[in-house]
Design a protein that fits this description.
The protein has 94 residues and is α+β, with helices and mostly antiparallel strands. The protein has one domain. Strands 1, 2, 3, 4 and 5 form a five-stranded mixed sheet that branches. Strand 3 and strand 4 form a beta hairpin. The longest helix is centred in the first third of the chain and has 14 residues. The radius of gyration is 13 Å and the shape is globular. The termini are far apart.
Amino acid sequence: MISVERLDQVVQVVTRAGLNEQTLGALRQAFAPIHFTYCQDEDIGEGVGVTAPVRSAEGFNLYLVDGQAHCLRLTADPQAATGLVLAALDHGTH
């Protein structure tokens, strides 16, 4: 389970510090045993079930991960969440 308050804290930290490896390391240390993953938002595939982030902020989206079964999957249920995916938004031009 990941509380709504914890989600808000993570968003505040990433908003202030930026989404990078140092921030991810600090989050892992501060909020253990929550598992944190970092990727590009475009890497969140449509075939994974839940595709809507639970939080959106400047430069990134936040998704919940349920790792209670044999395989990891995205979830919308904070009660089932064991980890978070921080997905960077690419606002550059292509």
